[in-house]
Amino acid sequence: MAAFVTHITLEHLEHLGQPDPDDLSGKTPSQKATAQARAKGYDGICLPLTNDQWKARWRELCLLHPEGSPDAAALEQSAEKWRAKPGFLRDEVTITRLDEAENSIILLSDWLELDAADAWVRHDAEIALQQELAYASYLNVHTAILPPPRNREHVASYARIINAVLSSVPYMQLSVRMPIYDPSLIHLDYGSTNAATCTTSTKPVADHPSIATWEMWDTIRCICDYHPRLTLALDLTPPLPSSMDVLRQWVAEPTRHLFLPASTFMPNAKGYPVLPKSTQSFMREIMKLQPVVMFSGTSDGLHTKGGEAAYSQYIRHLEKTSPAVKAMRTEGTVENFAQGYQDYLQAPLQPLMDNLQSITYQTFEQDPIKYRQYEEAVFLALSRWQKPGKITICVAGAGRGPLVARCLTAMKRANKEAFVYAVEKNPNAYVTLQERQRAEWGDKVQLLFGDMRALNVPEQVDILVSELLGSFGDNELSPECLDGAMRFLKPEGISIPASYSAFLAPISSSKLYNEARVSKDEKGMETPYVVMLQSIKILSGDGGGLSGKCGPQIQECWEFEHPRRDAVLNDQGLPLTNSHNTRAAKLTFHIPHGGALHGLAGYFEAVLYGNIGISIHPERMDKISKDMLSWFPLFFPFKEPLYLPSKSELQVTIWRLTNQRQVWYEWYAETFLALPDASPLVSVTSAPRTSGGDSLKIPSDKVAVEWSPFIDNIEMPETPRSGRVFTVDDAGIRLVKIGQTSLHNPGGRSSWIGL
Ligand SMILES: C[S@@+](CC[C@H](N)C(=O)[O-])C[C@H]1O[C@@H](n2cnc3c(N)ncnc32)[C@H](O)[C@@H]1O
Predict the structure, then answer these.
(1) Does the structural domain 502-675+733-754 have CATH classification 2.70.160.11?
(2) Would you say the CB of residue 429 lies under 6 angstroms from ligand 1?
(3) Dmax over Cα atoms in the chain, in whole Å?
(4) ipTM
(5) What are phi and psi of 532, to 5 degrees?
(6) Which of 39, 291, 317, 624 has its CA 20 to 30 A from that of 564?
(7) pTM to 2 decimal places
(8) 47 near 12, Cβ under 8 Å?
(9) Which CATH architecture has domain 3-178+207-337?
(10) E runs forming strands in 322-402
(11) Would you say the CB of residue 423 lies under 6 angstroms from ligand 1?
(12) Where in the chain are the domains?
């Protein structure tokens, strides 16, 4: 559940500080505020650390002594003394005791301009911030909210200061208060191309105000090198962006707090406070991250009905009705099953090289959907079976036997005589199989111990059933194992599964990026992980993009079919090499809104038999195998985040490679901006086509390229040099390459699957 706290203002604290003859408790104002908040059902309070006296002193020391004024020299002396030994006077702070800080979130002085245009102001604001944090640290404060960045021009200075303070306070969580829109850009005229003006900058920073805000955040956390203690306090003060797609990007960020003033609410027909539609949807989605909601101004009587409690009751209602939260609380769903595993990176299983433990099989067997789908597939195959005589089935990789049991049930249901061979190479699971054969299956099943690529089955079978699939389909070596097992499938026999495909989508997730690089070695960033994805945003959108060449949001990489007829076999019926199982895919994604690419999400889908399948493809899983628990997606990390501007195109190349002993993946990405050739910024008359930019054939009237903030960051040589290339299309569109990743996992140096 999300925690709720109430924002205590300085006025409120002052009021609580007035002597009350009836109150003999001796509590400090902040303790009284906490007690009152608890009585109203809040989990705690957030309050400013300093008061107006500190603000006045700092201003006097650091701002208000123009040269030439009579006391300028004395003030400069005092300022230097303060700079040398910064510290508070008792009356400048709101709390002094450990227990006051214990359950409170501390707001550092929000008037500190760490990104002021004046370098001296920034300098003194940094000293003041260090002083506030040192005091907060003295009081053992766990979480402090930083003043918001305000000035895009100097956001790098802001970020440098935050980076410095992160290393000077060892334990505290520091949360950047981030207005969800950028006030300095809100008046921009986005209708014109480059004539926009704003107060702080002469050109727009991005194509959408809230993207600009996100970019400021991106700059800050990049300069702070994705520090794990740096989080976000999203300030939901209106006006808020209405595009859910833009709001969704905050779900992929370390959003820990939501600052929610009463003014964000509007009255419904009955006068109760409610949120606008898009903010409702956003709240429902972000609630899965269990943020701390910081209510503010809720006792000011801004809305006529419901009183103060109405605000938190309403947010609790949004939480309860959030599809993601509901799924987590409903038994039988993946979200419920995965509690505690969200965004937790796991090394994929190696069931071929390693022998699985009984407890791992037990976890598989908790998934009723997978086995139901397999039983239905076998049932359908048996029902359609026309040939006379006994049918033979082989379960290849039987584990502890659940698929064997399902085959027997399907036989009964289809009223067909069949015999089952169960092959397993794990000697430990083979003991369980023997026990089940003795107790349950009798002579309907024959067990065979060994590796399906080497062992002989007494006869060729009609149906080969296997489940050797990983989150990416082929990543647990199903293709290689089934190549071996095909020897004991009759030429006209059926393989269940009949085929499986791998899918990819580019994702942003600061959480996963940080998790993957925790080990600090390159290996960790070149390993695909199994992970229940939660704090992510899929960066791609549907639609062809400006070039008209982009595929859907989630794209298929490749497919494996069984039985396959194209491999060249030796005398024993085994493939001579594994070359036929190598694959390569080049996928082009349209990126509608800017974001940081941290990795690729991998999914699979399998056709078991006929129209029966299993899928973890986010858009199709509910139709094909809803609530199937067995597989979480795969995450292919990138070593460095790759910035993708709005309306850019991302090309991802992924390879499945192999040698005699191993199979591994290599992956790589490049990013392009599509620009109209008529751009006044550069004139390029001829440029070579490169592999990165295919010929583009789209009518120029389809092209609606907006002013891009990145054009002036892109160095455009007259003659293309390596590393930055562009192509010109007949219709006047150029794809300008603006970035690339390194090749990940070359030669399987960091991760591979053993054959
Ligand atoms: C993912 S488990 C599935 C187990 C079981 N069929 C189920 O669905 O619960 C795959 C099983 O195949 C076995 N296996 C993998 N490769 C094999 C091979 N080459 N020969 C025989 N068994 C294999 C593993 O030991 C493991 O028991």
Answers:
(1) yes
(2) yes
(3) 112
(4) 0.99
(5) -80, 105
(6) 624
(7) 0.87
(8) no
(9) Alpha-Beta Barrel (3.20)
(10) 391-396
(11) yes
(12) 3-178+207-337, 358-467, 502-675+733-754
pLDDT at res. 211 = 65
Taking residues 331-340, what's their average pLDDT? Answer: 91
How far apart, in whole angstroms, are the C-alpha atoms of residue 442 and residue 404?
12
pLDDT at 210: 59
pLDDT of residue 685: 31
- Termini Cα distance of the chain: 45
Atom of ligand 1 nearest to the CA of 426: 25
Buried/exposed 703-723: b ≥16 CB within 10 Å, e otherwise: bebeebbebeebebeeebeee
Domains 3-178+207-337 and 358-467 share a fold: no
CA separation for the pair 721, 740 (Å, rounded)? 15
Whether residue 182 is predicted with pLDDT greater than 50 in this model: the reply is no
Residue range 560-582: mean pLDDT, rounded: 91
Give me the CATH code for the 358-467 domain, please: 3.40.50.150
Q: Residue 461 in 3-state DSSP?
A: strand
CA distance 426 to 428: 5
pLDDT exceeds cutoff 60 at 708: no
Instruction: Quote the mean pLDDT of the chain.
Output: 88
Q: Using alpha carbons only, how large is the chain's radius of gyration in Å?
A: 31
- The protein residue with its alpha carbon nearest to ligand 1, atom 15, reads 352
How far is the C-alpha of 144 from the C-alpha of 104, rounded, in Å? 9
| pLDDT class of 564 with cuts at 50, 70, 90 | confident
**Positive or negative, the Cα torsion across 343, 344, 347, 351?**
negative
Place of tokens 């085994």: 574
Q: Which residues contact 328 (CB under 8 A, 6 or more apart)?
A: 288, 335, 336, 339
Q: How far apart are CA 107 and CA 46, in angstroms?
A: 7
Q: Which residues pair with 556 in a beta bridge?
A: 503
Angle between helices 427-436 and 358-365 (to 10 degrees): 60
Average of pLDDT values for 427-431?
Answer: 98
**349, 352, 358, best to mutate for ligand 1 pocket (most atoms within 8 Å of CB):** 352
**Tokens coding 445:** 């099943």
Please check whether residue 2 is in contact with residue 292, taking contact to mean a CB–CB distance below 8 angstroms: yes
d(CA 468, CA 470): 7
